Each structure stands twice: as C-alpha cells, then as structure tokens.
Amino acid sequence: MTRRRRLPRPRREGSARVAFASLLFAVATGLTGIADAAIPRPIARAFLDAGVPLDAVAIVVQETGRPWRLFAHDAERPMSAASVMKLVTSFAALELLGPDYRWKTEAYLDGPLADGVLHGNLVLKGYGDPKLTIEQWQAFMAALRARGLDAIDGDLVLDRSFFAVGRHESAEFDGEPLKPYNVGPDALLVNFKAVKFVFAPTATGDAVQVAALPPLPNVAVGPPPPLASGECSDWRSAVSATFVDRNDAADASFRGRYAAACGEREWWVSLLDHPHYVHAMFDTYFAEVGGRFGGRVRDGTAPRGATPFATLQSPPLYDIVRDVNKLSNNVMARQLFLTLATVDSPPPATAAGASDAVQRWLRKRNLRMPGLVLENGSGLSRRERVSAGALARLLIAANGSAVRDEFASSLAVAATDGTVERRFRNGSVAGQALLKTGTLEGVRALAGYVIDAEGRRWVVTALINHPNAARGQPALDFLVQWVYRNAAAWSALPQRR
After folding, report:
1. CA 376/CA 351 separation, integer angstroms
2. ∠ at Cα 462 (474, 31), nearest 5°?
3. 3-class SS of residue 450
4. Where are the domains of the chain?
5. CB of 398 within 8 A of CB of 369?
C-alpha cells in the first residue's frame, strides 16, 4: 500500500510589518496583490542537503493563467542563468522574425561565365545562417554546378559584412579555444567551423582508424594511435592528442593509445579561422561535384545591385530554435541573437544592436525584465543576468502568445530528448516537463513548464549561483518532480486562497 504523502504547509509571515512590506513589493513589481509563499520545506531541504544555501537560490513556481505565484524565493534578483538565457533569445526571435523566417546564403559571379568557366571571382555572401551544415553545403555546391558553373579562374571572395562582430577571442571565456561551443559568430558560418575526428577499431580488430570529417585539405591528420587493451575510461587523455591551429591550416597528432573497448568515439574540435574554413569547405565539396578551383580566399563585398547566381535557404526558424534550446547550441544562439539587430535597423548587426532590439521588444510587449543583461544571447557569458521572476513572466507570456507551440516544442522533454534525456527517468514527470537547462562553473539553472496529471501547466524557474552549484542539480530535479506531484494540492490549501 502506498503511503500517503503529507503536503507541507506554507509558512506564515512572522509579523504584519513583513506581510505589508511583501504586499508593497508585489504591487510595485506588478506581480499580484498577495505576498509570495515561502518555499515548501522539502524543496528547501533538498538544496540545503546538497550544500547549496538558500541565499544562492532563486525560484518561482506559478500556474499559467493565474495572476499569483504558488511560491517564490528571491524572485527579482538578477543572477547568471547560463544557457537558460536562450529562452529570451528564442522567444524574441520567434515573435520578431516569425516562425517561418529563413536565412539565405548567396553566390554571385564577379565576371563573365563562358563555356562553364567563370573568368573572375566567385562571391559568397552570408546573412548569418545558424545551421549551414555539410549536407546543405553539398546541396549549395551542387546547385552551382547545376547552373552551369564548372570552373573558376579567379578567387573565392567572402562577403561577411552582414555581421560586425569584431575580433573574437575563442579562449576568452574559459581558456579552451578549440572547444566548438567557443566558436564566434560569423555572417558566413559553415558547419559550425568544426571538425569531427572519428576513432574506431578496424574490421580486423588489430588497429585504429581515424577519420576527419569534413575532410579538409588544410587539416593534416597524423598516424592513428596504436590499439590497446583494457577499459575505455578517459579515452581522450589516453590518445594524447595535439591540435596545432595556425588559422589557415591545422595539424592533428595522436601520440597515445586507444582502447579497443572504446568502440567508435567522436571528438569535435574547432579549427581554422572562418575564411580559411569556408575556403577548405569550398575546395572539398566543389571538387566533389566535379568543379575546378585553384584560387585564393579573401574578404570582399558582393557586387552592388547584382542578381544572385544561386541562393541557399536555411531551415525555418521554428526548426532552428529546437536545436538552440533542446541541444543548447551556443553558436546557433549567438547567430540568432545577432540577427535580431537587423529587425528594425540595417546591417551590419552588432551585439549592442541585438540587445537594444530585445529591450524594445520587451517594452512594446510590456514584459518587465528589470536587471536583464544581454551580451551574446546564449548564456555563455559571465556578464549576462536575468531574474527567476523575469524568466517566469517570459514563460507565461510565451504560453499565451501566437508562437506558443513553436516555443514550447523547442524545449527539451523530460527523460525523452535534449539536455534532459537522461534526467527524470525514474520519476512520474517523465514526458510531462518541457525544460531549458543551464550549466556553467558555479551556475545551475532550469526553467520551463511542468504539466501535471490533471493537465494543469505550471511555470518553474530556478537559478543557483554558488561554488557548489553542480551539486544542486538533484535539488532542481526534485523541484520539478514536486511541482508535478504536489502543486495542484498545495494551491488548493486554504492559505493559498
């Protein structure tokens, strides 16, 4: 027989003065006419047991369609939200650009085309496509050939002027310049400027093969590591990889060993600068479709007033935001954020312009987010700030918006996909929570919707800023489970009416 859980009772304020002060605060912040209830004791205990003091935590739980919060703690303090900040960027983009918005990449002929040969330069102009993958690039190259471009006797000219991002220091955030999440935005971003190294034992089981994808001519791959016995533990350290990136060319070498028990493994590395990466991609895949090119690469601009020779369109925005939120893709989020700067202002897009565009949108929507600080819109920042209360208001606004379905479907589903695929598997909330997570050193965050057994939808936002934040993830998960199981009954208690 299942033991009935006793629901915690909300704590009453200790004095009329405190209650009156809370009332004034609620009215001043436009929240409700009643004071927020305190965190239920089991939730507070979960954070304390994890070594996370409550003064390092901010929480809001509120049912959509209700003007008052079920409970809240330190709701209006701006804090680091890590990748949960992507909720601001993606909702703003869906409303400002529209769910069907598509980016384009254009090719121009800067010279005459005769008998399949371009006597001049090929100009590629980018507009910030966040998801120009290998497959799309291959289709673009095939389209050039299908339109009669067989060979180019000039250069490859890259028009990257749609974004003005300045010099990007990939090592600035955490000293890891080769990590793909540290790739800077670019108007002509191709394949996230990343190379995937695939390690696998050969079919005969006596050696290791290493493949670099895409196979770029200016990325040299050294001999594979010898095959070894034993367990597959820290396999990346075991292969003793060295990556030397010179911007225009790169070398990869592996001086260690690779355990047969590892099977097939992947290692993503950011190599080359943006122009030379695009150049290498063009060399590889234009040749793959039978094209001939032996020129250099340089920056420039597309011919003014010319008609594009070929145009590649991105997937629609509603598809893009799924990758941004479910997979927490920082590079795509930064591309999306910069695009917002062009909604009301002409390019080039800047981060400051994008931040201004978001703030104008918030004011027009009367959506209050005091203390909001935007730097790149991805949350991969030590300066970006937002409060749990502001995130809750944003989620409630999104739930009532025309882009409700596109926004909600971009969130990871508990125990099902995205960043929470392996979380909540042993809980009843599996499949019933739509969440965005955030992780940085000293930061853990979570925000989204929990749909309980009665179909009631609850907004949950929780931020931890503390050296022990990593230990607080079970407490965040417990909060989500508690809301699913207990929020409806808690809201029905006499003290909540």
Report:
1. 6
2. 150
3. strand
4. 16-99+319-496, 102-315
5. no
- Rounded Cα distance, 277 and 137, in Å: 13
pLDDT tens for the chain, 497 residues long, are 333 333 333 333 333 443 333 333 343 333 443 467 889 999 999 999 999 999 999 999 999 999 999 999 999 999 999 999 999 999 999 999 999 999 999 999 999 999 999 999 999 999 999 999 999 999 999 999 999 999 999 999 999 999 998 888 887 888 889 999 999 999 999 999 999 999 999 998 899 999 999 999 999 999 999 999 999 989 999 999 999 999 999 999 999 999 999 999 999 999 999 999 999 999 999 999 999 999 999 999 999 999 999 999 999 999 999 999 999 999 999 999 999 999 999 999 999 999 999 999 999 999 999 999 999 999 999 999 999 999 999 999 999 999 999 999 999 999 999 999 999 988 889 999 999 999 999 999 999 999 999 999 999 999 999 999 999 999 999 999 999 999 999 888 765 53
CATH number of 102-315: 3.50.80.20
Q: Which of 459, 469, 414 is nearest to 80 (CA)?
A: 469
State how far the alpha carbon of 334 is from the alpha carbons of 17, 124, 136, 319, 378, in Å: 46, 21, 20, 16, 6
492: alpha, beta or left, given left = phi > 0 and alpha = psi -120 to 50?
alpha
CA distance 213 to 269: 10
Q: Are 311 and 104 in contact (CB under 8 A)?
A: yes
Residues in Cβ contact with 267 at an 8 Å cutoff, skipping those fewer than 6 apart? 196, 197, 199, 236, 241
**Two tokens, residue 115:** 């008998």
Residue 468 identity: N
Are the CB atoms for 82 and 446 separated by under 8 Å? no
Sign of CA dihedral 213, 216, 220, 223: positive
Whether the domain at 16-99+319-496 and the domain at 102-315 fall into the same CATH topology = no
What is the CATH code of the structural domain delimited by 16-99+319-496?
Answer: 3.40.710.10
Strand 208-213 to strand 194-201: parallel, antiparallel, or no bridges (unpaired)? antiparallel
Distance CA 385, CA 227 (A): 47
- CB-based contact 267:221 (threshold 8 Å): no
Reference 357, options 348, 344, 347, 366; nearest CA is 344
Q: Residue 213's closest CA among 175, 267, 176, 253? A: 267
**What pTM value is reported for the model?**
0.90
CA-to-CA distance for 40 and 70, rounded, in angstroms? 10
Task: Decide if 316 contacts 99 (C-beta within 8 A).
Answer: yes
Between CA 388 and CA 442 the distance in angstroms is: 17
| DSSP result, 155-211 | -EEEE-TTB------TTTTTS-TTSGGGPPP-TT--GGGEEEEEEEE-TTSSSEEEE
